[in-house]
Design a protein that fits this description.
Helix content is about 30%, strand content about 30%. By secondary structure, the chain is an alpha/beta fold. α3 links the parallel β4 and β5. α3 packs parallel to α4.
């Protein structure tokens, strides 16, 4: 399968590494306006030139979020299946444009919400089957990544976890959400945020995200009617706590997780989707829009360092 990659930043290089390792993948072209590497693939500084001169069967877009609309639109107009690295776009308006374009050109398009393919998330979803979920708490914190210069922590990181809330509660809608954010160190973009969500099945969720913590932490906690689960997205470890007793004792079980690199699973799913049209858990453009909707819908613009946003 002839594949093209647009964008060779940090995430683009991860995609490059994985694409090169996959069987039946022929990475024929790479594009980045600042590319200086001596690569074996045909290299371009213009994505339009790459699309014009290469016969591609799939394209992965890893450019900065502010360029998603421009670049992905060109790929869609060429009717080439495209994977857009999350988030789908900078704004809801841009996401709607991409959705409409994909429909008009009947182009297969997906969003790279890679945590869907984290083995510990998939094991957690299996463990939650048949249980009533009471609450979900997700933490994604760490130091500021200097490579991010066009969006704040909400669009860059929180979209991961808004999507995970929906993956853990399929078929359930957001009834109400509140976004609290602050800007502490990086000027005009938020670097600290907490999102609280109430879903239509009476599940409550909270998401804590920041670029202020000196270490990385990526965890999911889920309370259910039968057990409490903690999932570490980095170590890919899943623990179940159950059988609470009056003497404050309980059982602890390490759940089985077949560890692996999430990006490998995501790219395999995308290439399968490009060939067959079977999405197999891959995020849609509409899924990408849904994450932005939780952040932006009825968003109150203010100059205050701390803002409360109510969504209803």
């Amino acid at each position: 399968m002839n594949v093209g990659l647009i964008g060779m930043g940090v995430m683009g290089r991860n995609h490059y590494r994985v694409l090169k390792s996959l069987p039946d993948v022929n990475l024929v072209a790479v594009c980045d306006p600042l590319l200086k590497d001596d690569l074996p693939e045909q290299c371009y500084t213009s994505h339009k030139e790459m699309l014009k001169h290469q016969n591609l069967e799939a394209v992965v877009v890893c450019v900065p979020t502010s360029s998603h609309l421009e670049v992905a639109s060109e790929v869609i107009r060429q009717c080439i299946p495209v994977l857009i690295e999350k988030p789908v776009a900078s704004t809801m308006e841009e996401a709607h444009i991409l959705i409409d374009l994909a429909g008009d050109y009947q182009t297969l398009a997906a969003v790279g919400h890679v945590e869907r393919f984290n083995p510990v998330v998939r094991s957690l979803i299996t463990e939650l089957a048949g249980k009533e979920i009471y609450s979900i708490n997700i933490t994604r914190i760490g130091p500021f990544p200097p490579r991010i210069n066009d969006v704040g922590v909400l669009v860059d990181l929180s979209v991961h976890d808004i999507d995970l809330v929906h993956c853990l509660t399929p078929g359930v809608d957001v009834l109400e959400a509140r976004v609290f954010k602050s800007t502490k160190r990086i000027g005009n973009r938020e670097d600290n945020a907490v999102i609280t969500i109430k879903l239509t099945n009476d599940v409550v969720a909270s998401i804590t995200t920041n670029w202020l913590t000196p270490f990385k932490k990526r965890t999911i906690e889920v309370a259910t009617d039968k057990a409490f689960y903690t999932a570490d997205l980095m170590s890919q470890e899943l623990t179940e706590y159950s059988d609470y007793s009056v003497n404050n004792s309980f059982l602890v079980k390490k759940c089985y997780v077949e560890k692996g690199e999430p990006l490998v699973g995501e790219l395999q799913a995308f290439l399968h989707y490009a060939q067959t049209g079977d999405r197999d858990g891959l995020g849609s453009l509409e899924d990408g829009l849904r994450t932005l909707d939780t952040i932006y819908r009825k968003r109150c613009e203010a100059k205050s360092q701390n803002i409360e946003v109510s969504v209803g």
